[in-house]
Amino acid sequence: MSMNIKSNYRYVEWSLRLGLAAMFGYSGIDLIWHPTGWHWAVRGLPMVFQNIINAIGINTYLQLQGVVELFFALVFLFWIWPKLTRFVALLAAFEMAFILLFVGVDLTTFRDFAPLGAAAALYFLLQDKP
After folding, report:
1. Distance of alpha carbon 61 from its chain centroid, rounded?
2. Which of 100, 27, 40 is nearest to 69 (CA)?
3. Positive or negative CA dihedral for 97, 103, 104, 105?
């Protein structure tokens, strides 16, 4: 691989990592600090998921989701574990797909197509890293 391609590869990887870390970091913090502002995000879920959320409480569920999203953000910033980052990118892509499929596409959730694409791209970009 030429030096220019390696350099471009790093720019692409870090653009994806930083963008995803910023998004998951912001939403993670907001989910923890302001769970009631996210109640809309758990509407209309399949009953199996709604029962789990109801059992632990909606605010507790959303705060736990915030902790998970903060973990995702931190993993995207750590360059020393590309396999973990690749796995978290896959989980992030599934999370965004789940939101779009079960919460639905509206004037807020349509923005989840971008992190879905970014997480999927990072997953495939890291497939050859040790």
Report:
1. 16
2. 27
3. negative
Taking CA atoms, 46 is separated from 101, 103, 108, in Å, by: 11, 9, 20
Buried b (16+ CB within 10 A) or exposed e, 75-112: bbeeeeebeebbebbbebbebbeebeeebeeeeeeeeb
- Amino acid type, 115: P
Taking the complete model, does pTM exceed 0.85, yes or no?
Answer: yes
Of the ranges 24-33, 59-68, 76-85, which one carries the lowest mean pLDDT score? 76-85
Sign of CA dihedral 88, 91, 97, 102: negative
Residue 128 has phi, psi (to 5 degrees) of -100, 0
